[in-house]
């Protein structure tokens, strides 16, 4: 689109009233691929109507940085959507709440509570490492024959989040953990199916099986979290918060009450519940899917797995578990994690942003209320910035042995809406992956083809189910030390 003072050029065809460009968006392609295709034809910045919503789509990193960073405040709004309104009691969370002072306080509270766990105390590391031991034991017990690692990985990550949010640690097979996993999975499966309802909100008057299932899962989730909340209220003390629920409850009494006491300005139990619920929604599927994608690529590239293991053997050895302080000595492992997040961003199109004020992108006027979609897939596969973007090549994050982070690599977004769990996620990815590869090797079952690389798009971009064979490395036959 040549810079001009008008809005960005429209997408594929002149939009129809109401239906807009939607009829032309069929063809079965998921949005990130469709938008990438349209970007080839119309340029990296274009606009179209998704139902009644005029939407600007950003497909390159310069414009993405403008939206997220340079004019981050202008574009920090979120649209209201049917499925996410259901999920969050009308935006009483962080990810789907519109920009407001209350959203800011909630973000700060969650951030502080993660910092309290993570930095200095090492508590977070202990929580993750205990989950690592159970995961390794589980993988090694089932892994001699080919088996699907997805459930075990998701269980391990869910366990970490349960400890962080309400201090529960579960054993394998615990009924409450199963319940958490069941409703989480139900939400993940159905929210992606909400689809058209989010484009045409009036559709919710029609019976919709997905929406029904979503509501049922939300009821189970809210019952469990409300019980945890009441238990926390009853045992809250003046000391340091034990977990995220404590931190939110303390924030609610300390800073969150405003004189007006209106629902819009006060942290209520609803906000505490929805924010706690979001740690699961935003923190489990993303982290476990990233790990599962990295395993997929290690199966395609056994030489990368061997190189990581060599680095681990030289820098850590097999006498003790890996810990966070080893990170500086394991640059190649870090590059493998980054390359996994580049080539298969779990959130290939970021959560929709909205313009909170009249603004501009790339010199084009963008009116207040416009929806803006950032296509991270296109940015992470842009051949102008990535040599052979479809190739899994961790070395692209190394320059003469030093780690580099190119400005077109934005797996957690950036600016006011940047992912709040980035350091938690990075800590988990590092400890899980390093521990797994220190203790075991992953190979394909005899005669099986390498896993499919296309994946399928639900709430996140997931690999299709695949099987691995797990073999313990010398000294780690039992899984833990
Ligand atoms: C938002 C990525 C893990 C909590 C986001 C966004 C991305 C992202 C791309 C959207 C940014 C935007 O809209 O511009 C990831 C990835 C993860 C991960 C790749 C793991 C590999 C987590 C974890 C948590 C978390 C572990 C918390 C427990 C959130 C929240 C938001 C968010 C609350 C919304 C922030 C806001 O709208 O203000 N994440 N995330 N994420 N993430 Fe994550």
UniProtKB/TrEMBL annotation:
Instruction: Kindly give the PROSITE patterns that the UniProt entry links to this protein.
Output: CYTOCHROME_P450
Molecular function (GO) terms listed? Answer: heme binding; iron ion binding; lipid binding; steroid 17-alpha-monooxygenase activity; steroid 21-monooxygenase activity
What Pfam family does this protein match (any one)? p450
* InterPro entries attached to this UniProt entry: Cyt_P450, Cyt_P450_CS, Cyt_P450_E_grp-I, Cyt_P450_sf
KW Ligase (keyword) present: no
User: Which cofactor does this sequence's record say it needs?
Assistant: heme
Q: PANTHER family from the entry?
A: CYTOCHROME P450 FAMILY 17 POLYPEPTIDE 2, STEROID 17-ALPHA-HYDROXYLASE/17,20 LYASE
Name of the protein in question: Steroid 21-hydroxylase
